[in-house]
Specification:
By secondary structure, the protein is an alpha+beta fold. α5 runs antiparallel to α9. The longest helix is centred in the last third of the chain and has 22 residues.
Length: 289
Amino acid sequence: MTTIDKALSLLACFTSDHPSHKLTDLARASGMNKAGVFRYLSGLVRAGVLEQDAETRRYRLGSEVIRLAQVRDSSIPVRSWMRRLLSDITDQTGETCHAALTSQGRLFTYMVNDSPKSLQVRISPGMHLPYHATASGQAFLAFASEDFVTSQLSEPLNAFTSGTVTDPAVLRDRLRHFRQQGFSLSEGGVDSDVISVATPFFDAGAMPAGTIAIQAPAARMTDAIAQTSGALLCAVARQATQHYGGVLPADFPAHHSPDPVSTNPVSTHTVSAETLSPVPAAGHQQTRT
């Protein structure tokens, strides 16, 4: 691992749940010695990527991150159209949904749209999503390169619940099935009371750029709703890929024509690409799903 790799790996420790850290925390999390971590942190502070609170001595993300995020969003304006897509999904299903992107090989929540219901799945932006244990991660792996899948399934696969699949062979079978149908399903992979459905959207090379997922309390996500939610997401994947400037893989499933998917019995929305609001071209439970 190069010096810059080590410095950048420290940035992965900063999330919405843990926005600031002490030097000792970062040394423990990274497995590096305190002297080395301090040296890397000092360089990141000089570059404006991190800043240190003068009183608490805790490190947090600096203003340079905001500038870089604005440059990224102006060149590939994901935020505007993604927010509209997620809002439409929640309007139609009544459930929480989120988009996830990758950074340094890790999948993390990028944007969340909360369910209006009192019993809902709560997710924080910036949350790490384990590839093997979440619907988002498995949807990504189902369409990722063989080398990437092998690298992820060669890592220790932690069991978060009794429903977490940790056998690489079983996971590969699931990935093949998910690729055929265009979406993944996770039943209690990280939280035993949550069921999630997810699909990827793609870059210009027809490789996964990120994922979009719907998650609901298990009591509300019946098998029929899970299937129609997956069909909705396949339609969303087509729109998201178009807005991202990407290309669908040749074997991505053909257009679905599902029945209504809402878990709210008073809803009359139907699920198809046509019901999603047009968006400009591109430019409480808490869990990981």
